């Protein structure tokens, strides 16, 4: 069984994330989407809120599991039997950071490979931080996030 891990902050999950996740779910037998707990410090939503919103957003994709983890991504991947780390690329600006991360991870464990997927042009500019900025300034984020995220954030500022 080929398992991929899709790790991130997902603060909150966006349609860009979902796009990458769906592609992954078509290729791998199972994708574990997991919120990194060490991203809690400066976060907008708690890990529990983020996990719940991801659960609701992906409930129709059967081979996706939602979780959270603490510590090194590579250690969590090993524990879960995932040989692949899935990451998304939007623009050249993502590249340098993602390349460093992927090289650091392969230096830690050569068994686990990172695979990058390029997002659809329509999701190119979507990031969790842009969404938060628009939302906190009373802009409409309904086009950029799953419906449940939109509904949840309505009451949260
Ligand atoms: P992190 O803090 O680990 O970067 P994010 O939640 O910001 O967590 O992103 C998780 C992954 O999803 C990263 O690989 C990021 O590049 C990717 N990603 C974020 N937004 C998009 C998007 N709109 N389209 C495609 N990939 C995206």
Task: Give an overview in words.
The longest helix has 17 residues, at 92-108. This protein is an alpha/beta fold. It has a single domain, classed as Rossmann fold, CATH 3.40.50. Helix 2 (47-57) links the parallel strand 2 (30-36) and strand 3 (64-69). Helices cover 42% and strands 20% of the residues. The protein has 6 helices and 5 strands. Adenosine-5'-diphosphate binds at residues 8-10, 14, 16-17, 20, 39, 87-88, 90, 94, 119, 123, 126-128.
Query: What's the gyration radius in Å?
Result: 15 Å
Give a list of the ligands.
adenosine-5'-diphosphate
Whole-number total of structural domains: 1
Q: Percent range for helical residues?
A: 40-55%
Mean pLDDT: 95
């Amino acid at each position: 069984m080929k398992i991929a891990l899709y790790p991130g902050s997902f603060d909150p999950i966006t349609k860009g994330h979902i796009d990458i996740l769906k592609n992954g779910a078509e290729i791998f037998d199972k994708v574990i989407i997991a919120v990194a707990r060490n991203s809690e410090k400066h976060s907008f939503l708690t890990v529990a809120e983020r996990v719940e919103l991801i659960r609701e957003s992906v409930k129709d994709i059967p081979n996706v599991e939602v979780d959270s983890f603490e510590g090194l991504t590579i250690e969590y991947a090993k524990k879960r039997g995932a040989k692949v780390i899935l990451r998304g690329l939007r623009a050249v600006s993502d590249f340098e950071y993602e390349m460093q991360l992927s090289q650091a991870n392969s230096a830690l464990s050569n068994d686990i490979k990172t695979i990058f997927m390029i997002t659809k042009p329509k999701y190119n500019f979507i990031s969790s931080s842009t969404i938060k900025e628009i939302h906190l300034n009373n802009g409409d984020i309904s086009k950029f996030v799953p419906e449940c995220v939109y509904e949840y954030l309505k009451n949260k500022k």
